[in-house]
Specification:
Blueprint (H helix, E strand, L loop, with lengths): L7 H5 L4 H17 L7 H13 L13 E6 L5 E7 L14 H11 L11 H14 L8 H15 L5 H12 L3 H21 L2 H11 L8 H10 L8 H10 L3 H4 L8 E2 L5 E2 L7 H16 L5 H9 L20 H13 L7 H10 L3 E7 H11 L11 E9 L5 E6 L28 E2 L5 H10 L7 E3 L4 E7 L2 E6 L22 E3 H7 L2 H7 L5 H10 L24 E2 L1 H12 L3 E3 L4 E5 L5 E2 L6 E3 L3 H14 L18 E7 L3 E7 L3 E9 L19 E2 L2 E2 L4 H16 L9 H4 L3 E4 L7 H10 L3 E4 L12 E5 L3 E4 L3 E6 L4 E3 L7 H10 L5 E7 L8 E6 L5 E3 L4 E7 L15 E2 L10
Parallel strand pairs: 1-5, 24-27, 29-32, 29-33
Antiparallel strand pairs: 1-2, 3-4, 5-15, 6-7, 6-20, 8-13, 9-12, 10-11, 14-17, 15-16, 18-19, 19-20, 21-22, 23-26, 25-27, 28-31, 30-32
Helix pairs in contact: 2-3, 2-8, 4-11, 4-13, 5-8, 6-7, 6-8, 6-9, 11-13, 13-14, 15-16, 17-24, 18-21, 18-23, 19-23
Length: 892
Amino acid sequence: MPHSKRTATGVLGGLMGLVGLSAVAGLLVSATITPAIAVSGYAASSAIQMFEDMPSYLKIEKLMLPTTIYAKNDEGKDVKLTEFYDQNRIPVTFDQVAPVMYDAILSSEDKNFYTHGGIDLIGTLGALARNATSNSNRGGSSITQQYVKNVLQQACEAKATDQDQVYACYKETTANQGTSGYQRKIQEMRYAIQLEKKYSKDEILIGYLNIAHFGGSVYGIGAAARHYFDTTPDKLTIAQAAVIAGMVQEPNTLRIDKPGGSVTNKAGELINSKDDGYRLTKVRQDYVLNRLFEDKKITKAERDEAIEAPIAPKITSRPQGCSVAKGSEFFCAYVTSIIRKDEAFGKTENDRLATLRRGGLKVYTTLNTGLQEKANKAISVVPASVSYMDLGASGVQVEVGTGRVLSMVQNRPWSDQVGEKGTTQVNYNVPVANGGGGHSAGSTYKVFSLINWMQQGHSVNEILNGRIGKKSVETCDGNTQTVWTGPGKAPDGTNKIGNFERNPGYSGTVARFTKDSLNSGFLTMAEKISVCSTNRVAMDLGVTTGNGGPLDEQNQPYDVLGSQAVAPVDMANAYATIASNGTLCAAKAIDRVVDADGKDQPIPDTKCERKLSEDVAATAAYVLQSVMSASGTGSGARTFDGVPVFGKTGIHEFIHTWMIGSSSKVTTAVWVGNVNAKKNSKGEWVNERLDEHVVSGYKLSRIRNSIWPAMQRAANAEFGGSAFPKPSQELTKRSYAQLPNVVGLDVDAATKRIEEAGFSVTVGDPVASPEAEGTVVAQSPGAGRVVSGTTVTISPSDGKGVVVPGVSGTPQQAAAALTGAGFTNLEQSCTQDEGAPPEGVVTGTDPAAGQTVGRDDAITIQYQAKDCGGNGGGPGNGNGNGNGNNGDGNGP
């Protein structure tokens, strides 16, 4: 049984200390490098000095260990998602290895390990002699020297960026040939002596077993036991220990996880396979077993039983990479993209990749496995592939107030093989920098116009003319661009920007525009708040183009309607800013990182900053809640679970459809779209539109109404949610302004004056008036203090009006006067009065004298008479009414 104490013989057997070893080593080097003077005293002393000048301190770096990524399950426990490694290694302590494993490695590699001072001089001399005579590359080193070699090789490999460099490290640390081979061997001896002074034998032995290579990507005794025999080092049998111990001589040749053969013979045939009983490995195993028997570590019966038994591997793979994180592959890819790009994990990308694959980190992520499972179920209504388009769908959820990404799903499965049919490695939720892209946001982008409107001092209850027609949109720096809204073609032949379902628009509040997602209304807003300022609001809330560029480079009018491609995770965080009363928290996927020693390491800096005032955030939430009402565009995505939510829908040219909404605790963003939709030179879509296909009972343009509420309900069930703050009175007030009087102006002049005062104008139907045709003869409301943004209706004259003249005398005399004025449609109304003359006396007309009416309008002559009945009713045309009987036109 190996032990940790060095014996007196071992101390003295340290090759007579440094002096004796230096002399031997110096003479060896001299004999090899300068054979002509090897025996001279000068040569010996020079060689000794060279040895003494070699570095004596070997820093043992941390082992190259797998990095493990974790998520939280429903019980709040950390569960492993996956691992990444260059070297499959499971470090173990000294007590976690079966004694027979130590005996096997020592009997076959260094039986005097516990008695020598760190160097197997005979073996080293033999190796150097073979170097000089046969160019052999075999070792002959002690366990300590082999440990040194492995430490040096790993230190080199830790800096390697490709397999060529890894192989160069192997050659540099193992080659015995030539002068460099002698020098390397002697340097190895120098380091071995130093290690023996610093560490106990047990520490060196377990260090060696933890670092040694056992074929392929298997390193260390823990991984070797698990990989080859599905066991742990403390449970290894004699036969198994002998196989593993034998591998250190030629790990890739003697490995037993290649049933088809691990090496090619001179005839080009694969050997050391299952068919030949792993012949080469069996020969080496037998050698180890015999050595164990000779050293009296096992009995003859134990040796014979192990030799007679065939090698029986039980290969247990240790899969790695994001494909292992079943159901969370794209979140895994998002996390690894952060590790590869954030300087918290290294200065260069190569450093960061090395940290991921060799750093032995434990990365605790923000993923909530319960929500992830429910989100996967929700997104599954969208097929992974269809025949008629490149159909994609994604969903992401972030925690309000922290930015922690709780779930991240999409319809297509992940594949490690790029281009595999029906799969993708593109993460539809994230920007290009994180392995994704972006999608045109559609009307979900209107939230930034809403916020911009309020930030520039406007109330959401300000009334604007949102009717279709010509809009002069301010793009930036005072520049404007004419945009036509409505169906069909604009006067210049270009396409108009229409409203959903050909809505003609209306004069209404900004709050109502948002509830109805009225395009013409938002373009009217853009006449007062520039497009570039709206784009800058979006950027201030953490949104960029999918490729990471600024949103305010082009500043097209269409931007306010969501034409630019953005990433769902960025949009989710922008909406979460509203839910968190104005504080933006950047997306966060990593909660904690612990190194192999259990020490917390820096994590990516994800700050939370106030970006909106509480009043703006609360009022935005108030307006967006109306979207989710029974009459709002988000009504189809209501959760019906009692938790207050707000949201916004979006469709971009029926190629992309979105739904983004939030409770006070969790924000959910859902996107579905035609990934590769393109337009031809005529501006026509060359791929299918979402509204032309039905899946799972939904038009694809509306399938968001299946996905979003399912995801949000799951979040509401776990996280709850409270009422949002009340909106600001200032930002919801009805503002007032002075409306000028425009009666008497022509229509164009009246319109200009009203619009300059900040009001919208509607021209009503012409009314009868003696004024010149087109002259405004009425306005509603009238001049004075009225609600700002009110739409004013002006009524122009038709130029055909006649003023009713004043009449008196008898009814016959009044009729004659009216007929003379051009009125032909006369009626009468008699009131009986005992004091009135029998022929009657006129009291007035209806319409009254002085009013303007059309020449064909009816004029009623009003009179009193002593008797309104019989033939005494006075003159008439058979149309008498009131108290007068129908006359026969004969008069009284």
